[in-house]
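Posting this for the archive.
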Amino acid sequence: MYGECGVSDSNPRAVYNCKYRGEAKPLEANASSFLRDLCPHLYLGEKETKTCCDYAQLIRLNDGMSLPKQIMSRCPACFRNFKAFLCDMTCGTNQADFLLVTKEKNDEKFGTEVTEYTYHITNNYTQNLFDSCK
């Protein structure tokens, strides 16, 4: 996936991501400092960083972090790991390794919108994430 397409049919505050089959794209210039602050493990330098998200997706991801940050602020490790999980899901360069598009919708204006996907995650990863929040 890359970029935001149309508005969700069931939630007007949510948007669909665009289906994209290519390689990760170079980071947009205006997104550099944002990615570096929000997802530091994905930032490899201004010219070297490639992602599967654009600036608008980073803004939405950042806006969605306010409640988790409040809840997890007492445990910085928990919040950092949770944030890394969401960063990888949104911007990770290897999304095809763990995301499977299961439903899509063609839109004349936006192209192919991803309306549903399955996220594959190991029990070990989820246990480690949970343990970091104990």
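The CA atoms of residues 98 and 105 lie 21 Å apart. The longest strand covers residues 99-107.
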